[in-house]
Specification:
elongated, single chain, six-stranded parallel sheet, 2 domains, Rossmann fold, alpha/beta, five-stranded parallel sheet
Length: about 325
């Protein structure tokens, strides 16, 4: 089976390891890194690489760059979306609420690989071929270095976007009450070094319904993960409160559990150790990439070719030869 994997060349989160593992676990896979402009105008690129020679075309891009290219997407047999932000489909604060479902329903032969177990279930109920493939972390880049943890409580990451408004408010309030460090770092070495200085990493993925990649990265680096509970998602991903993670449901509970962890360092160390082992065994890219490759190559729904009018337009506009 021949697989084409189209990914973003400008991502801040470094996912190269995930792509490589997925490629190595596919029969025959070629990775193309697309610029923003290429992602916004897929037709000419697909025509240039003879996309019809591939059994699967996997696209990892921003939903806002794809929704205006429905005619082109309809012309791709074996179309698969790799999506780490589909939780926004059900997030009231997001401008993309319902956008993912509308696109996928208009492409009934396609598959959506989403990073939330509950999101996948909700999309399946809408008739979408949605499959859960978790986020994870780059085990070659991030690990426990065994250094001195001189930052008692910390959070690393962005607070800028609209979807993070609740996260921003909670973290800023917690910082005032607990002296928690809230900052950003560059990807790579600085991020690794700073995570390894933090004893308790506070995650605040409010309203998202799934866990962001930082949760797995912090656990792998030996932090105690203090995370906002995502409800049913917690158990589906294998998290166990006060065993391999510490959950909270309110700001006051977060403060109480922070005090408990700092008061009982042996408990904190035990949870951190179990959390690290848990992340290493289930959420490394070495593991997640294998799952990704399996779902890419699994049998799909029969392809429904587009109308003759759409095929004519796409060929005229983009030079794409569309299978009949």
């Amino acid at each position: 089976m021949k697989v084409m994997l189209l990914v973003m060349d400008e991502q801040r989160v470094i996912l190269d390891r995930l792509y490589e593992v997925a490629r190595d676990n596919c029969d025959d896979c070629v990775i193309y890194r697309l610029s923003k402009q290429q992602q916004m105008n897929l037709g000419p690129f697909l025509a240039s690489v003879n996309y019809q020679d591939f059994d699967r075309v996997v696209i990892f891009s921003r939903i806002k760059r794809l929704v205006r290219q429905l005619s082109v997407l309809k012309c791709i047999p074996g179309l698969i979306f790799l999506e780490h932000d589909a939780y926004q489909n059900y997030m009231r604060e997001s401008k993309y609420i319902g956008v993912y479902s509308r696109l996928y329903r208009r492409l009934p032969s396609s598959r959506a690989l989403v990073s939330g177990a509950v999101v996948a279930r909700r999309m399946q109920a809408e008739g979408i071929d949605a499959v859960f493939v978790s986020k994870g972390y780059d085990e070659q880049m991030l690990h426990n270095t065994g250094g001195v943890r001189d930052i008692p409580v910390g959070f690393l990451g962005s607070l800028k976007s609209t979807e993070y408004a609740q996260r921003k408010a909670l973290l800023e309030s917690l910082a005032r009450r607990t002296n928690m460090l809230v900052t950003r770092t560059a990807s790579g070495r600085e991020y690794l070094e700073t995570l390894n200085r933090i004893k308790i990493f506070v995650s605040a993925d409010l309203g998202m319904g799934e866990f962001m990649i930082k949760n797995f990265e912090a656990m792998a680096c030996g932090c105690v993960l203090l995370a906002w509970s995502q409800g049913e998602e917690d158990e589906l991903l294998g998290f166990e409160d006060m065993e391999n993670v510490v959950f909270y449901h309110s700001e006051d509970e977060a403060v109480q559990k922070l005090e408990l962890l700092q008061r009982e360092p042996e408990l904190a160390a035990r949870i951190a150790s179990k959390g690290q082992a848990f992340a290493e065994s289930r959420y490394s890219f070495a593991r997640v990439g294998q799952d990704l490759a399996a779902e890419i190559q699994r049998q799909m729904r029969p392809w429904q070719p587009p109308s003759a009018l759409i095929r004519w337009w796409v060929k005229l506009r983009h030079g794409m030869q569309v299978p009949g």
